[in-house]
Automatic annotation (TrEMBL):
InterPro entries: TM_pro_TauE-like, TSUP/Inactive_protease-like. The keyword Membrane applies. This is Probable membrane transporter protein. It comes from Cryptosporangium japonicum. Its main location: membrane. Belongs to the 4-toluene sulfonate uptake permease (TSUP) (TC 2.A.102) family. Keywords: Cell membrane, Membrane, Transmembrane, Transmembrane helix. The chain crosses the membrane at residues 72-91, 97-115, 136-155, 175-197, 204-225, 263-281.
């Protein structure tokens, strides 16, 4: 019961992050499942089955709040479903000893990307309104879907920053569209895992726990996306993912690092992570201050352009 409650809390927290940031539900949940000894394919299958429900509720919530661009959902989601099915069948074919460190490497790379992307660059907003083309979204969807299924997460960490980097869609609509299209990816990946490993290797109690937590958080996250500072949240989540998967990789059969080496890595990660969070907070408040200055300057310019009313003699 304690483990199920923990999984429900993880599902809730992961969905709050995912619905606000457009990524990290799968990466966060899969990382925990691997940490408690679940094999790679079963961990990814469990998370994707839970995501069928969480993404459905999340997509509906984002739609209600006006955060979804439906052409983008279709252009990236349909190719992404094919990539997810291929990734699930590929991961299912690997033996457990090989799959665990492979997944840890994928998750570690995604964690580093999330940490670096949001700490150093924040969000780009200078190209809003330009169209997103299918020739960009379709290959992105296939790649992100494949990585998502093989890594137990990756649809958001690959898709969200790529579309944000294009600067052609409002950040809240990027998050909402990625979260909504992930419903297709979750279904395709789940089918692939059922074909590859069968249902007997999946703990449906764990699926239900993750699902319940995620469903509770989904509507809250869709509202938070309008208010949460993504830069800070990205730094926090990225650091967790990097730390946990570095630990998994260093303790794997591939490396089996001694305690002194592992603790040295952990110390460096903690220092870098703390610096990243501090920098993100600093830049967030600096950006807010600059926005206030720009707004005041624009207001003064508008006032200067208004014709003055002559004073009667």
């Amino acid at each position: 019961m304690r483990k199920l409650l923990l999984l429900a809390l993880v599902g809730l927290g992961a969905q709050l992050v995912d619905g606000s940031l457009g990524m990290a539900y799968g990466v966060t949940s899969t990382t925990l499942l691997l940490a408690i000894g679940t094999n790679a394919a079963a961990a990814s299958a469990t998370v994707h089955l839970a995501e069928v429900g969480t993404t459905l509720v999340s997509g509906f919530s984002h739609w209600r709040f006006g955060n979804v661009d439906w052409p983008v959902v279709l252009k990236i989601g349909v190719p992404g479903a094919f990539g997810a099915f291929a990734g699930a069948t590929f991961l299912s074919s690997l033996d457990t000893a090989t799959a665990a460190p492979v997944m840890a490497i994928i998750l570690l790379v995604l964690g580093l990307y999330v940490l670096g992307r949001f700490t150093l660059f924040g969000l780009r907003k200078d190209r809003l309104g330009l169209p997103l083309r299918k020739r960009f979204l379709a290959p992105l969807g296939i790649f992100a879907g494949f990585i998502d299924a093989t890594g137990g997460g990756g649809w958001g960490p690959v898709g969200t920053p790529a579309i944000l980097a294009s600067g052609r869609l409002q950040p809240r609509k990027v998050v909402g569209s990625i979260d909504t299209s992930e419903f297709l990816i979750s279904i395709a990946a789940s089918i692939g895992f059922f074909v590859g490993i069968g249902s007997e290797n999946i703990d449906f109690g764990w699926v239900a726990a993750l699902l319940i937590g995620g469903v509770i958080a989904a509507p809250i996250a869709a509202w938070l996306v309008r208010h949460v500072p993504p830069r800070v949240l990205g730094s926090l989540v990225g650091g967790i993912i990097v730390l946990t998967n570095t630990r998994s990789l260093l303790k794997s059969d591939w490396i089996d690092a001694p305690d002194g080496v592992r603790y040295g890595f952990y110390a460096v990660i903690y220092l870098v992570w703390a610096a990243a969070i501090a920098w993100s907070f600093k830049q967030y408040y600096a950006d807010k201050a600059q926005e206030s200055v720009d707004a005041a300057t624009a207001a003064e310019e508008d006032a200067a352009k208004e014709p003055t009313t002559p004073v009667p003699a």
